[in-house]
Amino acid sequence: MIKKEIRKINEVGKALVSVEGNPGVALNHVVELVNASSDQSISFAKAINITEESTRFQVYIGTQGVSTKTKVRLHEVPTTVGFSQNMLGRSFDGIGHVTDKGPQIIFEKELPTQLDTLNPTVRLVPKQPLWTGVPMIDVFNTLVKSQKIPIFAGPTEPYNRLLAQIAKGAQADVIVFAGIGLKFDEHHYFKEELSKSGNMSKTIMFTHLAGESQIKGLMLPDVALSVSREFADQGKDVLVLLTDMTNWSNILRNVANYQDMIPSLQGYPGSLYSELARRYEVAADIEGAGSITIIGATTLESLEDPVPDNTGYITEGQFFLEGGKIKLARSLSRLKQQVNDKTRSDHRAIMTAMASLLADAEKAHEASEVGAANDSYSQKLLKYRSDFISQIEEPFGTPVELDQALDMCWDLLRKHFEPAETGITQKILTEYWNK
Q1: Is 237 helix (H, G, I), strand (E, B) or coil?
Q2: Can you say whether the dihedral through the CA atoms of 148, 152, 158, 160 is positive or negative?
Q3: Is the peptide bond before 233 cis (omega within 30 degrees of 0)?
Q4: Global pTM?
Q5: Whole-number Å distance between alpha carbons of 123 and 281
Q6: Whole-angstrom Cα distance, residue 112 to residue 134?
């Protein structure tokens, strides 16, 4: 709801504007800058200095396009997003405006997009699995409801395709897709894949396309997470897919530079860690309500880059995408032990045995590159490694239920090894080897 409009700006600087007197804002109140002729939004600004004579605002992305005739629009709540159950199956931009050609949505309420810290006393210990239909995740690095975990990938890796694959098989009540700096074909691909899988009806898409206003990209995670929290408060299990958090961090860096903040490593603001943490910490299993689980794609050239480096300290493991495969040796879910002892009785045994054999197979592969590893057992390991990469580390295809994925693992072991070579206990072998 619009509270007031100021139709004259007294002064325009590089990243600052000021108006006469105090129009009725407090420190850090966010206002919208609007073109006086077209009534189109230009940017947003935050109140940073208030006196009896004037109020000064810091503009998020600089004052290009802003003049003394630009309107300053105050809202009842500084930044909000509409919420409705009818948002399911629909597409929105970075500030929550409808972008598809569907019918108008009548919102039930307006949600503040300020991501307040959740009271720790209402958080539950994570203990419920969230199945994705991807064997490499469900068997070896099980995702847990309320977990926050990134996909680390090089910029040319198919990380958005992996997010679409997870969304197709995810056993969540609501899927919220939040894409920052996407190409149009990536947006279209995600929507098409979900429509084919039948999961589009429980998905909400918030999309910021490359070339669109940076401020929409900056605000998008907060908008998407605010909607996610409302669904969780209503008892839903929500899976949030954020991509690409490096794009988002780069926008944050641009905004900081516009505002003449003192830069830190590679020009990112010193607040990068806390800014990322504030978004990821929305993930929670909430007492008396539902849950929010976050998977955030983070592109990188090196793990020492500021964005993945900071992300690694915040999140609970990582899925590492390399060569189009989820690499077992570089991936880790720190919460998997909370749930994988309560699934099928062979889950932990098969996970441990296959990981150990793959580690041996990697050593055999290194030896084979210098002409060694010619013995029969090393040859077994090399063939096992090839099949493991092509069948288990391959994340794409029809979603697979956990029981079917575990059976796939047994088939692979039977193909390449004798029972005694697996290291699995006799009790488990007796129950599953000949199934």
Answers
A1: strand
A2: positive
A3: no
A4: 0.89
A5: 11
A6: 35
User: Cα separations (Å) of 348 from 127, 146, 148, 327, 406?
Assistant: 16, 21, 22, 18, 10
Please choose, from the candidates 194, 216, 192, the residue with its C-alpha nearest in 3D space to the C-alpha of residue 206.
Answer: 216
Q: How far apart are CA 359 and CA 355, in angstroms?
A: 6
Angle (nearest 5°) at CA 391 between 202 and 382: 155
Cα 435 to Cα 431: distance, rounded to the nearest angstrom = 8
pLDDT tens digits for 110-125?
A: 898 888 878 888 889 9
Helix axes 214-233, 272-280, angle to 10 degrees: 40
DSSP state for residue 116 in the 8-state scheme: P
Q: What would the pLDDT profile of 287-345 be if each residue is shown by its tens digit?
A: 889 999 999 999 999 999 999 999 999 999 999 999 999 999 999 999 999 999 999 99
Phi, psi dihedrals of residue 85, rounded to the nearest 5° = -60, -25
CA dist list (Å): 252 to 149, 215, 227, 335 = 21, 9, 21, 30
Q: Is CATH 3.40.50.12240 what the domain over 86-334 is classified as, yes or no?
A: yes
Nearest-10 crossing angle of helices 184-197, 159-169 = 20
Tokens of 388: 């493991």
What secondary structure does DSSP assign to 330-397, as a single string? G-EETTGGGTTTSS-TTHHHHHHHHHHHHHHHHHHHHHHTTT---SHHHHHHHHHHHHIIIIIS---S
Q: Are the C-beta atoms of residues 252 and 277 closer than 8 Å to each other? A: no
Give the helix/strand (H/E) hosting 280. Answer: helix 272-280
Alpha carbon of residue 371 to chain centroid = 43
Compute the chain's Rg from CA coordinates.
Answer: 25
Q: What is the CATH number of domain 2-78?
A: 2.40.10.170
The answer to whether residues 230 and 83 touch, using CB atoms and an 8 Å cutoff, is yes
CB count in 10 Å sphere of residue 102: 11
Q: Which residue has the tokens 């399911």?
A: 88
Q: Where are the domains of the chain?
A: 2-78, 86-334, 347-432
What gap in Å lies between CA 58 and CA 220, rounded to an integer? 20
How far is residue 4's CA from residue 269's CA, in Å, rounded to a whole number?
A: 33
Take residue 408 and report the two structure tokens written for it: 């796939």
